[in-house]
Amino acid sequence: MKKLATLLVLAIAITTASFASNGNGDKTTYNVDTKASKVYWTGKKVTGEHTGYLNLAGGEVFVEGKEVTGANLNMDVTSIEVTDLQGEWKDKLVGHLKSDDFFSAEKHPVANFKITSYNNDKVVGDLTIKGITNEVSFPAEVKVDGDVLTATGTATIDRTKWDIKYGSGKFFSDLGDNMIKDEFEIKFELKATASEGTTSSK
């Protein structure tokens, strides 16, 4: 009887271990679809706001089991666009945003966001703009459906932490209606697909 009980416990242990290692520890890399992904921005000033987007230059999202363990996203600063203006006014603003007053696109053509953790629908990571890195955190939603991963999230950041001081009331006085608010929004909309040969069990 004792021998039978021992065998039963052993069988249960083996079965449990088998289920635990089946899929729960899989590691998958999802490559960002640069055509289906965008980073939208909104900048506000005293008299209104401007909106636009920039393209992703590539990146990966790392998933273990069903949990996001990290990500590395590259943003093409040279692709910055304005969506609330047309013609000459749009061209002027795009040129200004690419200048050293704002994002220094020629000197720093790529911005980067590295996710260090994703828990309870909250993303924490390091955002690098103009070669300057600061930690940011914001709510986000990530969905994994087979080989496809989608993610959305909006961060509100203080641009002056990345040396974007143009029109800031913190650094310039008597701006009046020309003052630009320090905080602006960045909204990520990502789509990524699983890489072949990147899935493995622990």
Automatic annotation (TrEMBL):
Residues 29-193 form the Lipid/polyisoprenoid-binding YceI-like domain. Pfam families: YceI. SMART domains: YceI. SUPFAM superfamilies: YceI-like. It comes from the Bacteria. Residues 1-20 form the signal peptide. Keywords: Signal. This is Lipid/polyisoprenoid-binding YceI-like domain-containing protein. It comes from Draconibacterium sediminis.
